[in-house]
Amino acid sequence: MDLRPVALGASVTTYDPSRPTPAAIVSGEVAAHDAPHPLSVFDMFRIGIGPSSSHTVGPMRAGLAFTTELTTLKPPSHITIDLFGSLGATGRGHSTDRAVLLGLAGYDPETVDIETVESILPALASSSMLTLPSGTQVPLNIAEDVRFVPRTVLPYHVNALTIAASDEDGTVILERTYYSVGGGFVMIQTNDDPQNPEVSSLATSQAGVGIDVPAPHPFASGAQLLAACDAAGLSIAELVRRNEEAVRPRETVNAYLDRIADTMFDCVDAGTSAAGILPGGLDVPRRARALAGKLAERLTGIPQASTDEAGASSGTSPAEGVRSPGARAWVSTVADPMRAMDWVNLFALAVNEENAAGHRVVTAPTNGAAGVIPAVLGYLVTHCPETGSTPGVAAGPATEDGAVTPLAHIRMTMEDSSETSSDDPASPEACAARRRALVHDFLLAATAIGALIKTNASIAGAEVGCQGEVGSASAMAAAGLAQALGGTPQQVENAAEIAMEHSLGLTCDPVAGLVQVPCIERNAIAAVKAINAARMALWGDGRHTVSLDVVIETMRQTGNDMLSKYKETSEGGLAVNVVEC
Q1: Fewer CB within a 10 Å sphere, N or C end of the chain?
Q2: pTM of the model as a whole
Q3: Do 38 and 451 form a contact (C-beta atoms < 8 A)?
C-alpha cells in the first residue's frame, strides 16, 4: 500500500483503495508507526446499532458494501450468507444474520431507524423475499440461505463472512469475503485464496478521511504521546484536537463531538425510559427504569410511581419495603457520600440494555462496552463541580419526572455558545460553555488512549477477550475523566494504565451468545473502576512503575494466549456454567 500522504489541500471525502484507512491500521495491514496520522475521534466513536460492533455493525457494513457493488451487475436470483468462526458461534445471539440482511437491503448502521431493524426478520419470514436497494426482490429462506459455520475459522481473522449472489442458472455473479476486525471496521478479501488472503480496507462514510494527512503531532505509543505533549506544551486533549483540526475545520470537529456526546446521553435516557424483557430468550428484565425511580425517590424524598423490572405498573413507590428497620434508608440520599456510584451504575445499565435490545448506541470503542464511557461522562456532567454540579446538595441528574430521563437537561447542541456569550462566569451560558469544553476534552483524551490500544493490541472480544472491550473502554474513560478534571498528560496516561492493568485477563463468555450476561453489569463495574483509576492517578504526580505501553502489550499477549473458548465463542466460562432457563 502506498503510504505517501496526499496534499493538504486535496479532497479527503473520496475513498481511494490505495490510501491507508483506519481499518487497515486497526487490522495491522498498516503498522501504527507507519501511518502519517493516528486514529481519529471519528474512528474511535461511531454511531451504530446493537448489540455488537464486530458481530452486528461490521457485518451490516459488509452487507451494504456487497449490495452496493451488486447494483452495477446483473440482478441476482439467489443470495447466500456464510458466517464463519466467532460470527458463526455467537452470530444468532448478536443478530449477525439480521445485520447482514439489513445491509443487503441498503441500510447503514448509523442511520437505520429502529422500526426497520425490528421489522426486517418478521417481514422476511412472511414473504421469503429480500428487497435490494435497486428494487430487485430476491427469494431468501433465512433458515437455509444464512448459514452459521462456527467450526470453520478462516486464516485472516476469526470474524469472517462470505456473501454470494448467483443467477437463475446457479452461476455466481458476485462473491466476496469480509472480515469484521473490531469496532465496526471491516476488511475485504481481494483474491480468491482463503488460505493466503490478500485484503484491503472497506470504505465507510469516514474511512480514509485524513488518515494519510500528516498529523502535526503524530504518536504510535504512549511514550511518544507523552513526549509530543511535553515538546509542544499541550495537554493530551489539546494535542489530539490539533491533529483533528489539521484535517477538518474546528466547527466540524466540535459538531461531531457534540453529536457523539448527545447520542450517548440520548441512549441513557432511552434506557431509563424503557421497561420489559430483553430479546434473545434469556428473559433478562430491564432494570434501569426501576432503578431510576428508586434513585429519584431517595434523592428527592418524593414517592415515585414506578414500573417493576418486567415493565408492569406497581402503583407503589419503587422504594417501598426498603424503609423497614435496618433497610439502609440513608443509601443514595443527599447524606450518602457514595450516591454518585448508584447513578453511574444506572447510566451504564441503561446504555447496555439499549444495546442488548439492538437499539442505537455509540461504539465506544465497541458495542459490548458501549455503556462505560457514557456512564463516566454522565458522572462528569452530573456530579463534578467542574461542570456545574454542587456537591452535597440534591443536584445532578434530572429527577422531576422520576428520573425517567435523568440526562434530558444536558445536551451539547443546546449548549453551543457560539452565538451567545456572557461576561458573568457564573451565568448559565458560561457554565454550559465550560461543560461543553470539558466534555470535548474528555472525548479527545479518550480517543488518544483508544487509538493506542486499537493499533497496538486489539479491541475485539473474539481476538483478546473482554479485556479488549470493557478493559479498553475503562481505560479510555479513566483517561477522559482525568483530563476533564485537570490532569497532566502523565496523570491521564497513568489513569488509563491503572484501568487497563486491572482488566487484564478478562474473558468474553456471553451466556447464549447474547450481549446481556455478564456484559450489562460488567459495563457498570468497569465504569466505576474508571472513576477510581482517574481519582488514584490524580492524587499522584504521574510517575508509576508500569507504563501504558507495557500494559497494552501485556493485554495483547494475554489475548493471544487465551483459549478460544473464552473469546466470544460462548464455549467456556459463564456461557457453559449458567443454566439457561
Answers
A1: C
A2: 0.89
A3: yes
Give residue 515's identity as a one-letter amino acid code. Answer: V
DSSP string, 214-226: PPSS--SSHHHHH
- 369 CB-near residues (< 8 Å, 6+ apart): 466, 469, 470, 472, 473, 523, 526
Residues 6 or more apart from 189 whose CB is under 8 A from it?
Answer: 156, 176, 177, 178, 179, 197, 198, 199
Reported as a single tens digit per residue, the pLDDT across 279-333 is 999 999 999 999 999 999 998 888 876 566 655 554 444 444 444 445 688 999 9
Confidence at residue 203, expressed as pLDDT on a 0 to 100 scale:
63
Residue-wise DSSP of 68-109: HHHTTSPPPSEEEEEEEHHHHHHTTTTTHHHHHHHHHTT--T
Residue 475, helix vs strand vs coil: helix
**What band does 580 get if pLDDT is binned at 50, 70 and 90?**
low
* pLDDT confidence tier of residue 413, bands split at 50, 70 and 90: confident
Residue 309: closest CA among 327, 324, 289? 289
Q: What is the amino acid identity at position 113?
A: D
Mean per-residue pLDDT for 381-391?
Answer: 86
* pLDDT for 55 beyond 80: yes
The answer to whether residues 139 and 129 touch, using CB atoms and an 8 Å cutoff, is yes
CA dihedral of 212, 213, 214, 217, whole degrees rounded to 10: -100
As a whole number of Å, the CA-based R_g of the chain is 23
Query: How far is residue 186 CA from its own chain's centroid?
Result: 15
Calpha distance 481→10 (Å, rounded): 36
Least confident of 272-276, 536-540, 566-570: 566-570
Beta strand ranges found along 333-445 (DSSP E): 360-363
Positions of E strands within 125-197: 129-131, 137-139, 146-149, 159-166, 172-182, 185-189
Phi, psi angle pair for 283, to nearest 5° = 60, 40
For residue 24, what pLDDT band results from cuts at 50, 70 and 90? low
Question: What are residue 504's phi and psi, to 5 degrees?
Answer: -60, 135
272 grid coordinates: 431509563
pLDDT exceeds cutoff 50 at 11: no
Determine contact, residues 49/279, Cβ cutoff 8 Å. no
Stretch 371-400: mean pLDDT? 86
Q: Name the pairing type of β-strands 78-84 and 159-166.
A: antiparallel
Within 8 A by CB and 6+ apart from 105, the residues are 63, 67, 120, 130, 131, 132, 133
Q: Cβ neighbours of residue 330 under 8 Å, at least 6 residues apart?
A: 336
Taken as a whole, the chain contains a residue count of 581
Q: Could you give the CA distance from residue 177 to residue 188 in angstroms, rounded to a whole number?
A: 6
Question: C-alpha distances in angstroms, 378 versus 94, 331, 381, 411?
Answer: 27, 20, 5, 11
Cα–Cα distance measured from residue 217 to residue 448, given in angstroms and rounded to the nearest whole number? 12
Alpha-carbon distances of 335 from 297, 303, 396, rounded to whole Å: 14, 18, 14
* Residues in a beta bridge with 362: 47
H or E segment to which residue 48 belongs: strand 46-49
